[in-house]
Amino acid sequence: MAPQMAKLLTASDQLSDTVERTEAVRKAMVNDRDEMDDGLQISASRIETVADELHTSVEDCQNALKLLSPSLDTTQERLNTLSTQLLTQHVPTHYDGNTEETDTNQPQRQTYSSIVTANLTPSIDKAIGRAAIRAREILLDPPRWATASSHRTPCTLTW
Predict the structure, then answer these.
(1) Which residue intervals of 89-148 are DSSP H helices?
(2) pTM of the full predicted structure?
(3) Which segments of the chain does DSSP mark as H helices, in order?
(4) Which distant-in-sequence residues (6+ apart) come within 8 Å of 156 by Cβ?
């Protein structure tokens, strides 16, 4: 009976090792599943946060559109009026090269700029004038390395 008991003890030891390894694999799988669940929860939370921010951004855009719509409608009406005025003006069909004065009985042709400036508020008209002056200014700036005491300092043109 001794050889049978030895085989039984060996089988029992092998079975015990197998159960221990199986338990270790099961614990590892549970840990992996828990980590995956945590990762999924974190991902779902991040997606929810981004969706909320996106929803807020869309609402902000809609509110801005609601605020700007009356202004855009008024601007479109003014553009339509200006366009109609431009289309009703006399436009010469060809240029004959003659620079002499035209007949004084003919109505003077208005340009787009004159129509626009006639409808602008004075502050905008002044701002456009200042911008035009600045665009044509020539400034003489001495180089940074030059000192006030140097007699022959070349200047650079800046536009």
Answers:
(1) 112-119, 122-136
(2) 0.36
(3) 2-88, 112-119, 122-136
(4) 140, 141, 142, 143
